[in-house]
Amino acid sequence: MRKFFALTLVAAAVVGLTLYAQDAVFRVKVDMVVLSFTVTDSKGKYVNGLKHTDFRVLEDGIVQKLATFAEGNRPPIQILDDGSTKPLAIADNTAKENELKGPSDAFVGTNVFVLFDTSNYMYRSFVYASDAIADFVRGLDKADSVAVYTFSRNLTRAADLTRDRNFAIAGLRKAVAGDDSALYNGLLLTLRDAAKVPGRKVVIVFSNGPDNGSMVAPDDVRAVAEDEGIPIYVISTAEVNKDPISSGVFRRIAGRTGGKAYFAKTWQKQVEAFESIREDLGNSYTITYYPQTNPNEGFRKIAVEIKSDLAKKYRVRARPGYRPRTS
Q1: CB–CB of 258/37 below 8 Å?
Q2: Given pLDDT bands bounded at 50, 70 and 90, which one contains residue 327?
Protein backbone atom coordinates (compact mmCIF):
# COMPACT_ATOMS: atom_id res chain seq x y z
CA MET A 1 0.00 0.00 0.00
CA ARG A 2 2.75 2.46 0.92
CA LYS A 3 4.52 1.57 -2.33
CA PHE A 4 1.33 2.39 -4.25
CA PHE A 5 1.05 5.78 -2.53
CA ALA A 6 4.72 6.47 -3.19
CA LEU A 7 4.33 5.69 -6.88
CA THR A 8 1.23 7.89 -7.02
CA LEU A 9 3.10 10.80 -5.46
CA VAL A 10 6.01 10.33 -7.86
CA ALA A 11 3.62 10.31 -10.81
CA ALA A 12 1.96 13.49 -9.55
CA ALA A 13 5.34 15.13 -9.17
CA VAL A 14 6.30 14.22 -12.74
CA VAL A 15 3.05 15.73 -14.05
CA GLY A 16 3.66 18.86 -12.00
CA LEU A 17 7.15 19.25 -13.37
CA THR A 18 5.88 18.74 -16.89
CA LEU A 19 3.30 21.49 -16.48
CA TYR A 20 5.37 23.99 -14.56
CA ALA A 21 8.93 23.06 -15.55
CA GLN A 22 11.34 24.48 -13.00
CA ASP A 23 9.06 27.28 -11.84
CA ALA A 24 7.06 25.16 -9.39
CA VAL A 25 7.22 26.56 -5.86
CA PHE A 26 5.66 24.84 -2.85
CA ARG A 27 4.65 27.10 0.02
CA VAL A 28 3.78 26.10 3.56
CA LYS A 29 0.37 27.25 4.75
CA VAL A 30 -0.03 27.19 8.51
CA ASP A 31 -3.43 28.12 9.92
CA MET A 32 -4.36 28.67 13.52
CA VAL A 33 -3.56 25.58 15.56
CA VAL A 34 -6.29 24.29 17.86
CA LEU A 35 -4.83 22.14 20.63
CA SER A 36 -6.86 20.27 23.24
CA PHE A 37 -5.20 18.43 26.10
CA THR A 38 -5.81 17.06 29.59
CA VAL A 39 -3.79 17.38 32.78
CA THR A 40 -3.87 14.62 35.37
CA ASP A 41 -2.13 14.06 38.70
CA SER A 42 -0.12 11.05 39.84
CA LYS A 43 -3.35 9.17 40.60
CA GLY A 44 -4.85 9.83 37.18
CA LYS A 45 -7.36 12.41 38.42
CA TYR A 46 -8.07 15.45 36.26
CA VAL A 47 -6.44 18.68 37.33
CA ASN A 48 -8.79 21.64 36.94
CA GLY A 49 -8.46 25.33 37.60
CA LEU A 50 -5.16 25.97 35.84
CA LYS A 51 -4.78 29.31 34.02
CA HIS A 52 -3.26 30.16 30.67
CA THR A 53 -0.29 31.60 32.52
CA ASP A 54 0.45 28.14 33.91
CA PHE A 55 1.23 26.75 30.46
CA ARG A 56 3.96 27.15 27.90
CA VAL A 57 3.50 25.71 24.41
CA LEU A 58 6.47 24.95 22.20
CA GLU A 59 6.58 23.95 18.56
CA ASP A 60 9.93 22.44 17.60
CA GLY A 61 11.29 24.10 20.73
CA ILE A 62 9.98 27.54 19.69
CA VAL A 63 7.76 29.18 22.33
CA GLN A 64 4.33 30.06 20.95
CA LYS A 65 2.13 33.05 21.78
CA LEU A 66 -1.29 31.82 22.89
CA ALA A 67 -4.29 33.41 21.20
CA THR A 68 -7.12 31.92 23.27
CA PHE A 69 -7.61 29.67 26.26
CA ALA A 70 -10.55 27.68 27.62
CA GLU A 71 -11.15 25.03 30.25
CA GLY A 72 -13.83 22.40 29.70
CA ASN A 73 -17.08 24.00 28.64
CA ARG A 74 -16.37 27.34 30.27
CA PRO A 75 -16.44 30.50 28.12
CA PRO A 76 -13.09 31.08 26.42
CA ILE A 77 -10.85 34.08 26.85
CA GLN A 78 -8.76 35.96 24.34
CA ILE A 79 -5.15 36.61 25.34
CA LEU A 80 -4.05 40.10 24.29
CA ASP A 81 -0.55 41.22 23.30
CA ASP A 82 0.11 42.76 26.70
CA GLY A 83 -0.78 39.51 28.48
CA SER A 84 -4.18 40.70 29.68
CA THR A 85 -7.35 38.83 28.77
CA LYS A 86 -10.92 39.52 27.76
CA PRO A 87 -13.98 37.36 27.07
CA LEU A 88 -14.10 36.00 23.55
CA ALA A 89 -17.10 36.64 21.36
CA ILE A 90 -18.52 33.31 20.31
CA ALA A 91 -19.40 32.47 16.74
CA ASP A 92 -21.74 29.65 15.77
CA ASN A 93 -19.71 26.83 14.26
CA THR A 94 -22.76 25.09 12.86
CA ALA A 95 -22.92 27.75 10.15
CA LYS A 96 -22.23 26.78 6.57
CA GLU A 97 -18.78 28.33 6.40
CA ASN A 98 -16.07 25.68 6.28
CA GLU A 99 -13.04 27.85 6.97
CA LEU A 100 -11.83 28.80 10.41
CA LYS A 101 -12.03 32.58 10.32
CA GLY A 102 -10.57 33.34 13.71
CA PRO A 103 -10.16 32.25 17.34
CA SER A 104 -13.83 32.82 18.17
CA ASP A 105 -14.82 30.01 15.81
CA ALA A 106 -12.83 27.50 17.83
CA PHE A 107 -15.08 27.45 20.88
CA VAL A 108 -18.69 26.44 20.54
CA GLY A 109 -18.63 23.15 22.37
CA THR A 110 -17.09 20.07 20.80
CA ASN A 111 -17.96 18.63 17.41
CA VAL A 112 -18.28 14.90 18.12
CA PHE A 113 -18.22 12.43 15.23
CA VAL A 114 -19.36 8.92 16.23
CA LEU A 115 -18.29 6.16 13.82
CA PHE A 116 -20.31 2.99 14.48
CA ASP A 117 -19.23 -0.42 13.17
CA THR A 118 -22.25 -2.15 11.64
CA SER A 119 -20.31 -4.93 9.92
CA ASN A 120 -20.99 -8.62 10.45
CA TYR A 121 -18.43 -8.60 13.24
CA MET A 122 -20.98 -6.71 15.35
CA TYR A 123 -24.02 -8.98 14.90
CA ARG A 124 -24.14 -10.23 18.48
CA SER A 125 -23.77 -6.85 20.20
CA PHE A 126 -25.43 -4.60 17.61
CA VAL A 127 -28.48 -3.64 19.69
CA TYR A 128 -26.51 -3.11 22.91
CA ALA A 129 -23.93 -1.01 21.10
CA SER A 130 -26.65 1.17 19.60
CA ASP A 131 -28.15 1.74 23.05
CA ALA A 132 -24.77 2.68 24.51
CA ILE A 133 -24.18 5.23 21.73
CA ALA A 134 -27.68 6.69 22.18
CA ASP A 135 -27.09 7.16 25.91
CA PHE A 136 -23.78 8.86 25.17
CA VAL A 137 -25.39 11.26 22.69
CA ARG A 138 -28.11 12.19 25.19
CA GLY A 139 -25.50 12.96 27.85
CA LEU A 140 -23.35 15.33 25.79
CA ASP A 141 -23.08 18.94 26.88
CA LYS A 142 -25.78 21.12 25.32
CA ALA A 143 -23.12 23.16 23.52
CA ASP A 144 -21.74 20.08 21.76
CA SER A 145 -22.68 19.04 18.25
CA VAL A 146 -22.77 15.40 17.20
CA ALA A 147 -22.73 13.46 13.94
CA VAL A 148 -23.43 9.73 13.65
CA TYR A 149 -21.77 7.73 10.89
CA THR A 150 -21.98 3.98 10.34
CA PHE A 151 -19.80 1.69 8.29
CA SER A 152 -19.43 -1.85 7.06
CA ARG A 153 -18.03 -2.07 3.55
CA ASN A 154 -19.16 1.52 2.86
CA LEU A 155 -19.66 4.62 4.99
CA THR A 156 -23.16 5.93 5.73
CA ARG A 157 -23.72 9.41 7.13
CA ALA A 158 -26.67 8.47 9.33
CA ALA A 159 -26.95 11.93 10.92
CA ASP A 160 -25.00 15.03 9.91
CA LEU A 161 -23.50 17.30 12.54
CA THR A 162 -26.29 18.68 14.73
CA ARG A 163 -27.21 19.81 18.23
CA ASP A 164 -30.57 18.06 17.89
CA ARG A 165 -30.08 14.89 19.96
CA ASN A 166 -33.32 13.33 18.73
CA PHE A 167 -32.26 13.76 15.11
CA ALA A 168 -28.87 12.16 15.78
CA ILE A 169 -30.42 9.19 17.61
CA ALA A 170 -33.07 8.74 14.91
CA GLY A 171 -30.26 8.42 12.37
CA LEU A 172 -28.49 5.94 14.63
CA ARG A 173 -31.63 3.79 14.96
CA LYS A 174 -31.92 3.47 11.18
CA ALA A 175 -28.56 1.67 11.01
CA VAL A 176 -28.68 -1.89 9.74
CA ALA A 177 -26.10 -4.64 10.01
CA GLY A 178 -23.84 -4.98 6.99
CA ASP A 179 -21.16 -7.35 5.74
CA ASP A 180 -17.39 -6.78 5.50
CA SER A 181 -15.58 -4.19 7.60
CA ALA A 182 -13.72 -1.29 5.95
CA LEU A 183 -12.92 0.52 9.19
CA TYR A 184 -9.97 2.58 8.01
CA ASN A 185 -11.72 3.67 4.82
CA GLY A 186 -14.64 4.88 6.94
CA LEU A 187 -12.40 6.54 9.48
CA LEU A 188 -10.51 8.44 6.78
CA LEU A 189 -13.75 9.78 5.29
CA THR A 190 -14.99 10.76 8.75
CA LEU A 191 -11.77 12.64 9.44
CA ARG A 192 -12.10 14.46 6.12
CA ASP A 193 -15.59 15.62 7.10
CA ALA A 194 -14.47 16.63 10.58
CA ALA A 195 -11.54 18.62 9.19
CA LYS A 196 -13.97 20.87 7.30
CA VAL A 197 -15.65 21.96 10.54
CA PRO A 198 -14.05 24.84 12.46
CA GLY A 199 -13.20 24.48 16.11
CA ARG A 200 -12.64 21.58 18.43
CA LYS A 201 -13.61 18.13 17.18
CA VAL A 202 -13.13 14.49 18.11
CA VAL A 203 -13.89 11.16 16.45
CA ILE A 204 -15.19 8.22 18.48
CA VAL A 205 -14.87 4.81 16.85
CA PHE A 206 -17.05 1.99 18.17
CA SER A 207 -15.86 -1.23 16.56
CA ASN A 208 -15.20 -4.91 17.05
CA GLY A 209 -11.76 -4.46 15.57
CA PRO A 210 -10.87 -6.52 12.49
CA ASP A 211 -10.71 -4.78 9.10
CA ASN A 212 -11.03 -6.89 5.97
CA GLY A 213 -12.14 -4.33 3.39
CA SER A 214 -10.08 -1.13 3.57
CA MET A 215 -7.83 0.21 0.83
CA VAL A 216 -5.87 2.54 3.12
CA ALA A 217 -3.36 1.71 5.82
CA PRO A 218 -4.16 2.58 9.46
CA ASP A 219 -0.96 4.60 9.90
CA ASP A 220 -1.88 6.77 6.91
CA VAL A 221 -5.25 7.45 8.54
CA ARG A 222 -3.55 8.18 11.85
CA ALA A 223 -1.28 10.71 10.14
CA VAL A 224 -4.30 12.60 8.79
CA ALA A 225 -5.86 12.82 12.26
CA GLU A 226 -2.53 13.90 13.73
CA ASP A 227 -2.07 16.69 11.19
CA GLU A 228 -5.65 17.92 11.49
CA GLY A 229 -5.51 17.90 15.30
CA ILE A 230 -8.47 15.53 15.69
CA PRO A 231 -8.24 13.19 18.70
CA ILE A 232 -9.51 9.67 18.06
CA TYR A 233 -11.17 7.69 20.83
CA VAL A 234 -11.65 3.99 20.18
CA ILE A 235 -14.05 1.64 21.96
CA SER A 236 -13.38 -1.94 20.89
CA THR A 237 -15.68 -4.80 21.79
CA ALA A 238 -12.99 -7.35 20.96
CA GLU A 239 -10.83 -9.12 23.52
CA VAL A 240 -7.31 -7.73 23.48
CA ASN A 241 -5.57 -11.10 23.50
CA LYS A 242 -7.66 -12.56 20.69
CA ASP A 243 -6.82 -9.78 18.21
CA PRO A 244 -3.49 -8.25 19.27
CA ILE A 245 -2.90 -6.66 15.85
CA SER A 246 -6.09 -4.56 15.84
CA SER A 247 -5.64 -3.80 19.54
CA GLY A 248 -2.12 -2.50 18.91
CA VAL A 249 -3.31 -0.36 16.01
CA PHE A 250 -6.14 1.11 18.11
CA ARG A 251 -3.73 2.01 20.90
CA ARG A 252 -1.32 3.64 18.47
CA ILE A 253 -3.99 5.66 16.64
CA ALA A 254 -5.57 6.88 19.88
CA GLY A 255 -2.29 7.65 21.62
CA ARG A 256 -0.74 9.54 18.72
CA THR A 257 -3.78 11.77 18.25
CA GLY A 258 -4.37 12.65 21.91
CA GLY A 259 -7.31 10.28 22.40
CA LYS A 260 -7.73 7.01 24.28
CA ALA A 261 -8.42 3.37 23.47
CA TYR A 262 -10.87 1.27 25.49
CA PHE A 263 -11.43 -2.47 25.28
CA ALA A 264 -14.97 -3.11 26.45
CA LYS A 265 -16.47 -6.52 25.70
CA THR A 266 -19.59 -6.15 27.85
CA TRP A 267 -22.37 -3.60 27.54
CA GLN A 268 -21.57 -2.23 30.99
CA LYS A 269 -17.92 -1.70 30.06
CA GLN A 270 -19.00 0.07 26.88
CA VAL A 271 -21.22 2.44 28.86
CA GLU A 272 -18.30 3.11 31.22
CA ALA A 273 -16.02 3.83 28.26
CA PHE A 274 -18.45 6.38 26.84
CA GLU A 275 -18.77 7.99 30.27
CA SER A 276 -14.98 8.21 30.47
CA ILE A 277 -14.83 9.92 27.08
CA ARG A 278 -17.54 12.39 28.08
CA GLU A 279 -15.60 13.14 31.26
CA ASP A 280 -12.41 13.58 29.24
CA LEU A 281 -14.07 16.13 26.96
CA GLY A 282 -15.45 18.07 29.92
CA ASN A 283 -12.07 18.27 31.65
CA SER A 284 -9.92 19.25 28.69
CA TYR A 285 -8.09 22.51 28.19
CA THR A 286 -8.19 24.06 24.72
CA ILE A 287 -5.80 26.67 23.41
CA THR A 288 -5.17 28.23 20.02
CA TYR A 289 -2.10 29.86 18.58
CA TYR A 290 -0.72 31.07 15.27
CA PRO A 291 2.66 29.37 14.80
CA GLN A 292 5.79 31.46 14.98
CA THR A 293 8.11 31.47 11.97
CA ASN A 294 9.47 27.97 11.53
CA PRO A 295 11.50 26.69 8.55
CA ASN A 296 10.42 23.09 9.22
CA GLU A 297 8.05 21.96 6.46
CA GLY A 298 7.84 18.43 7.86
CA PHE A 299 6.48 17.11 11.15
CA ARG A 300 6.48 19.79 13.85
CA LYS A 301 6.64 18.59 17.43
CA ILE A 302 4.27 20.16 19.95
CA ALA A 303 5.09 20.21 23.66
CA VAL A 304 2.80 21.52 26.40
CA GLU A 305 4.68 22.40 29.57
CA ILE A 306 3.46 23.46 32.99
CA LYS A 307 5.60 26.31 34.26
CA SER A 308 5.36 25.73 38.00
CA ASP A 309 7.03 23.08 40.15
CA LEU A 310 3.79 21.13 39.96
CA ALA A 311 4.88 19.92 36.54
CA LYS A 312 6.78 17.09 38.18
CA LYS A 313 3.52 15.74 39.64
CA TYR A 314 1.25 16.31 36.64
CA ARG A 315 0.93 14.56 33.29
CA VAL A 316 -0.15 16.34 30.12
CA ARG A 317 -1.80 14.29 27.37
CA ALA A 318 -1.85 15.99 23.97
CA ARG A 319 -1.14 15.16 20.35
CA PRO A 320 2.59 15.12 19.62
CA GLY A 321 2.52 17.45 16.63
CA TYR A 322 1.40 18.00 13.03
CA ARG A 323 2.57 18.58 9.48
CA PRO A 324 1.85 22.02 7.97
CA ARG A 325 -0.10 22.09 4.73
CA THR A 326 1.78 22.78 1.52
CA SER A 327 0.40 24.68 -1.42
Answers
A1: yes
A2: low
